Amino acid sequence: MQQSDCMGPGGWSLLAPRAQSGGRSPVLDLRRREFISLLGGAVLTSPLALRQAAHAAPPGRSVTIGVITPLSFPALEGLRRGFRELGYVEGRNLHLEYRWAEGSTDRYFSIAQELVRLGVDAIVTWGTPATMGAQQATATLPIVMGAVGDPLAAQLRVSNVSRPGGNVTGFSSLANELEVKRLQVLKELLPKLQRLAVLSNAANPAIGVGAGALQQGARSSGVTIEIVQLQGNDFDKAFAELRQTRPDAVLVLADPVLLDHARDILAFISAQRLIGMYAYRDFVQLGGLLSYGTNYHELFRRAAGYVDRILNGANPGDLPIQQADRFELVINLKTAKELNLEVPGTVLALVDEVIE
Length: 356
Description:
The protein has about 350 residues and is α/β, with parallel strands linked by helices. The chain has two domains: about 10-25 and about 175-295 and about 330-355, Rossmann fold; about 35-175 and about 295-325, Response regulator (Rossmann fold), CATH 3.40.50.2300. The protein contains 14 helices and 13 strands. Helix 2 packs parallel to helix 12. The protein is elongated, with a radius of gyration of 20 Å.
């Protein structure tokens, strides 16, 4: 659908994270300025542009890349596409060695060690816990973060975003900053929103940053936030707490483990007839109401370009950590109808994809 410069309550713009003029979110504008100054004007580029700049070609030998994620993530197709665009052919000069943590953050270190012993040429990670596990397993093997929330605030061993140093570089999904935007979209959808329950994962060290920013944003918009933390995999307890809060809506924070249990979360929210906002489009495709977040497919596509540069001699510590620059708002109108919810035209005008 066509996008328009739609201003919400207080003058904020729902289009703030996108590369458009006018009405940007102060939070995201600040983050953009930080990234721009730290990068020294570095331009966000596609894998193809990175190859042209480096004048590289796929290594003459076959390479093996380890991939660590909590689950089989659909956006990993972006990684495979990026490698194909760069001349890699799986089974010929590229082998992707996948390892899934299957919802257990304790496994990241051991599976990273397994990949190191296997002799992979580099490791690609998704999420802060996966990256931390890989860092604990090796200080020399290149690690490319396909997507992490905030590499500086999440206790990852990086010096700064312009020159992270060491063996780690990659991409930030801006997940923490986008939690505030999700609140703003919810407020536009539900002007009378007063009580918002927030489901988070206590085991993810990056989530606290997003939850803190969300608390600040809620105070300025007159919304009361109730944080419900998932402890381990005890969803029954988390759902019981959500039920007790009696919220007007539920926001599920960006976290791979929560995505891994999307069907369970959606079943609970549907049974309670709650309004749900999510960080991943996968929830909406499974029947959730709406999501606003990073285009992870594109981030992982760009991550392939970084792996390629490293395989051709670049030092990962010299490659700047880049931020996401493509975001999408997805809504399920069938779910809205089931909830007897009338979606304002101001929200529909900003939707990138409608599921009916």
